[in-house]
Amino acid sequence: MTDERRTDDETKRVSREERHRASSHGRESLDHVHVYDPYADRFHEEDLGDEYYEQLTHTKQNPVSRIVNQWVDRLVGGVEDRSFADQEAQYAAHRTKRDYVWNTIGVGLWGMVFPILTIIVTQLVGAEQAGLFSLAFVTGTLLMFIANYGVRTFQVSDIDEDYSFADYQINRILTCIIMLVVGFAYCMIRGYAGDMFVISMGIYVYRMIDGLADVYEGRLQQADKMYLAGISQAFRSALVFVVFTVVLVLTRSLVASCILMAVAAVFSFIVLTLPLAYMETPRSRRGSLKNVNKLLKLCFPLFFALFFYNLIDNMPKFLMEGALAYENQLYFNAIYFPAHSILLIIGMVYKPLLLRLSEAWDDPAKHKQFLAIIGAVMGADVAATLVMMLLMGWIGIPIMSVLYGIDFEQFRYLVYIMIMAGGLTAAIEFLYQVITVQRRQSTIVKLYLATFVFSIAATLILVHTIGLMGAVLAYLLEMLLLVVLLILQFANIKRSPGRAIEGVGQSWY
What we know:
The chain is mainly α. Helices cover 78% and strands 2% of the residues. Strands 1-2 form a two-stranded antiparallel ribbon. The protein is globular.
């Protein structure tokens, strides 16, 4: 009986050891398992087998641990083979529900990083530091448009792969380098030194990684695995948020938090985004400098439009610097966030209607339907603006005061003005899409340039005259001007209908 008990105990001990190795190191760590042979009174090794491995590890690994271990095994395999592209794809394409869910999660987390971190910075290190952080983040987001260069839509719609993934990668690496150079030059021109320089560059690197990752996530979308792109974006955003918050809580140092934010973004790109795109999509043919140059030319019109619009949108924030204390950056951005939500709401309304709009514009008999859709969306914009104004007047301002630890009641009228500007911003975005459907998008470049000049003059005068109120009023006026110009341009196009055939470099969007 003693010998049998010893044997049973020994067997259990060895079994525990094998389970630990299996759960900690994965399948490759267990080429063989120790099995007790009672006839020979000794242990011998037997091939483990996949079925037994699953049984052995099932009780110890939760789903997250299992996914992580499997992913680490794939990474190790790719490193050992010196090629991620040669690894076998394991995730299915054509998963529409997953695409929708994970894309929503990824975009949602990405969009919430800035407002939530602004609240956290305000609570932990004060309004002035939050103002510095807000300005650096706004600048980094604008610079990100240089990195993206308007290529994503072109890339995912390149179904026949006229341009190789290598072409897109080279293009993106080039634009990311340009982004960082421009960001560094901007810091030098503004005279940033010490903390502000490090904070800015840390955020710029994080946003540069967002821009770099975008082309790899675009590759996944091109392969109809958009849910993997959403997972990549969600993981990066969540990791950056957690790392930044933990470091700020522990150190109360905004500089250290921004540095490690950049490190976290780089880490997420190396361990997930890049290998995921290589392993889950077909191998790309070699890149061509000629094609890279073509991409730069073809995508310039959309880059110009997006960059200048966002420059106009952020002009008050840039021109407030030096004229007003940094905490005013916080106040402006805090009341901007609710207004910006109108843009997101209206986007959800009109984006599913773009195909119907395009079909209605192509068919002269359906032009009344075309105008009806436009009227309905604009009506929804007005309604959303009024509802947001009522909500902010009722509970929104008190909630903001609690979240930021600042009395926003003093800014009540500025909140109302900003919400009106938010409604105009949503209208601008929609009207731009309408004119794009009409294939006349190149005609609005001059409208953006005119508004840009006006925004500089109006903001400089009003900010230096009435401070923060002037910045908010200037924002409202520049959005109002651009809406009026776009409506006039739309009316002009309507008087001379017929789908314009624009240059090859513009027709795709």
